[in-house]
Write a structure and sequence with these properties.
This is Mannosyl-glycoprotein endo-beta-N-acetylglucosaminidase. With 238 residues, the chain is mainly alpha-helical. It is built from 12 helices and no strands. α3 packs antiparallel against α4 and α4 runs antiparallel to α5.
């Protein structure tokens, strides 16, 4: 009996330092100042590790904007890394990282929407479309609406890719001009549909949106653009 107690005590003594070491490791960031924690996050070599440290800093020092900015940056890196895992067929790892992003505080709405699209595909074991392929698809479209829709698709997958940002804005202008021509030709339903497409786009220039809203109301009321009506009146024989 005494021998068994001795062995049990010996095992407990061996485990105790390991337990204490684990507790020290988990709480090692608690005593760090904001500057020290921020520096530690910057020096962390892994994307997921950076995200964890920035979240720690955000929760410990919520008034320090550096940690929120750090979360945004590191989330982008984690997403890029998870996408690689995803397209290599490692769905479990990708899903884990996507959920880590979605559970992180302070992530902007654009990144949340982008990550949710990735997560949906990972859960269905479907690959993420490549940016270059989406851009090629958009530039190969021949209709104004087709080009616009393809750039919306590309932007929703890659909102930080300037090709899709610029392409979407340019295609919105082209779609508006085309819709305006339909409007002035009395095809109100077609114009209304295209105006609504622009209004539902993920991004758009505010000046363009104001013009679209104005023309949408006119089309709903069966009124053509005043300039077109004036030009038509001028061209009528007297």
């Amino acid at each position: 009996m005494g021998k068994r107690i001795f062995i049990l005590l010996a095992v407990l003594l061996l485990l105790s330092p390991m337990s204490l070491l684990g507790e020290t490791s988990d709480s090692s960031n608690e005593d760090l100042s904001a500057d020290e924690l921020f520096e530690k996050a910057q020096d962390e070599p892994t994307a997921s590790g950076k995200l964890d440290l920035y979240i720690n800093g955000y929760e410990t020092y919520p008034e320090d904007g550096r940690f929120e900015e750090g979360i945004q940056r590191s989330v982008g890196y984690v997403l890029d890394w998870a996408r690689i895992k995803h397209n290599n067929g490692d769905y479990a790892t990708a899903i884990d990282r996507y959920n880590a992003i979605l559970n992180a505080p302070g992530v902007n709405d654009t990144l949340v929407a982008q990550t949710e699209k990735h997560l949906t595909n990972a859960n269905e074991e479907q690959p993420v479309p490549q940016a270059n392929a989406l851009y090629k698809e958009a530039t190969n479209k021949s209709t104004v609406s087709g080009i616009f829709n393809a750039f919306v698709k590309g932007y929703n997958w890659y909102p930080n890719d300037d090709r899709f940002v610029d392409g979407l804005k340019e295609s919105e202008e082209q779609l508006f001009n085309w819709a305006l021509a339909q409007h002035n030709n009395g095809r109100y339903d077609t114009a209304i549909d295209r105006y609504n497409m622009i209004l539902n786009a993920p991004i758009a220039d505010n000046k363009l949106l104001n013009r679209v809203k104005e023309q949408l109301e006119a089309a709903k009321n069966g009124n053509r653009q005043s300039d077109a009506i004036y030009q038509e009146a001028q061209e009528e024989p007297t």
